[in-house]
Amino acid sequence: xxxxxxxxxxxxxxxxxxxxxxxxxxxxxxxxxxxxxxxxxxxxxxxxxxxxxxxxxxxxxxxxxxxxxxxxxxxxxxxxxxxxxxxxxxxxxxxxxxxxxxxxxxxxxxxxxxxxxxxxxxxxxxxxxxxxxxxxxxxxxxxxxxxxxxxxxxxxxxxxxxxxxxxxxxxxxxxxxxxxxxxxxxxxxxxxxxxxxxxxxxxxxxxxxxxxxxxxxxxxxxxxxxxxxxxxxxxxxxxxxxxxxxxxxxxxxxxxxxxx
Length: 260
Description:
Number of strands: 11
Shape: globular
Oligomer: single chain
């Protein structure tokens, strides 16, 4: 394994992750490039277990800052804090060394009888945000070990009960996008909202620039700002689930609980 300290790694290859449940073999997607600054030195992921139904979100920065959210049908627990930078550095190196991530070549996987953890991964590769779907065990033993060490350290962090919630955005594609566009056009609401209008609500802009990341809403004012935007624009949906047509694409947005 490469033993260089994380601070010497080229910024262009430090990726960001996002992990979600998949029902079939892996797939890969690419989005427009975003900034290569500090945000590219963070990774975020959601791990879903077919067997237990539990959903686990974890966000890790290269300096060791970590946020996790564990959700089941009955409870939601959020933790925030800092782990050893060595663990974060090891994890980032395994991300960089993962052929599955860097090559964007997926491996077919029969998921019918698979009962383990499955992941949907987004990563910054040469400054471009890409995604790939695959079971965790497809990423190799070293990657799984580094991930497990970070997860174990994160489980010891303090519970955070102060956040009001999280905002997250999922790009609409394929049939879901066509259905939304047809409905919006029929109701005379097919126009896209310009980015300069969305940037007046910083959390919303950040959510669509970094799909699947959980953007913390620290105060009631943050939450109200988003809900006011929904009302002012007459967006489809409810207070906690709505659709945003924009010049960056169309998104399904949700406000999730931070504690339950």
